[in-house]
Amino acid sequence: IESGQGDRVMKVGNLSAKRDFLYVDDVIDAYCMIAEADRCPHPVYNISTGKVHSVQDILDYLISLAKVEIRIEIDPAKFRPVEAPALIAPNKLIFKDFGWLPKIDLETGLRKNLNWWREKTASGSRRA
User: Fold this and answer.
1) Per residue in 30-52, pLDDT tens?
2) Taking CA atoms, which of 17, 47, 59, 117 is between 20 and 30 Å from 53?
């Protein structure tokens, strides 16, 4: 939208859904830690922050960082037929077994992601 490659209206679905958002570098760190471990006491680990944020919160924050005005429209066609109101995964086992916790907070991760997209758009890269 900032690059002028589209309408300044963003059509969105359910903004009240709550999810546990995690920055990709934290996910990779956790995968590597588990893969390189001498032993894994449990067969499954949740890689998560243990906190939920609404899609509305994410959108509001990203709009606050935007360099242009963006208008939001709710589009019923973008709603999922069935959607859990909140999804959260406890990360107690990975912390207990490996001491792992995410390092990148939500706002920092969103800023990093937005800046990455801005660089890709500015460079004319078609691959994200």
Assistant:
1) 999 999 999 999 999 999 999 99
2) 117
* Contact (CB, 8 A) for 32 and 98: no
DSSP state of 16: S
Decide: 80 and 12 in contact? Cβ < 8 Å: no
Query: Roughly how many angstroms between the first and final C-alpha of the chain, as a whole number?
Result: 15
Amino acid (1-letter code) at residue 33: M
> Do residues 100 and 94 touch, judged by C-beta distance below 8 A?
yes
Query: Mind listing the pLDDT tens digit for each residue in 52-99?
Result: 999 999 999 999 999 888 899 999 999 999 999 999 999 999 999 999
- Dist. CA 105–CA 101, nearest whole Å: 11
Full set of structural domains in the chain with CATH: 9-112 (3.90.25.10)
